[in-house]
Specification:
84 residues, mainly alpha, elongated
Length: 84
């Protein structure tokens, strides 16, 4: 059970590192990093023009690894709550 928590933390950290690596490959169309405007919120598949091809691949892999890590973390805490 603790393995899922460890894998969850590793995946989320990997996703965060990949996201920061992808920021190097931004194009001028990309909004500023800490711009919390609702018009800038787009799904990952509509952010292709914000990055070069390599940056877009890094962004997709970042989302996949961080999302998988978050899902494993939720499963771990749910099992701890139910299983006691």
């Amino acid at each position: 059970m603790i393995y899922s928590l460890a894998v969850s933390v590793i995946l989320m950290a990997t996703g965060l590192v990949l996201f920061f690596l992808a920021l190097r490959y931004r194009t001028p169309e990309c909004p500023p990093l800490f711009s919390f405007r609702l018009k800038n919120l787009k799904p990952i598949w509509k952010q292709k023009e914000w990055f070069t091809p390599k940056g877009y691949r890094l962004t997709v892999w970042s989302s996949v690894t961080a999302g998988t890590g978050a899902l494993l973390g939720v499963i771990y805490w749910f099992n701890m709550w139910i299983g006691g």
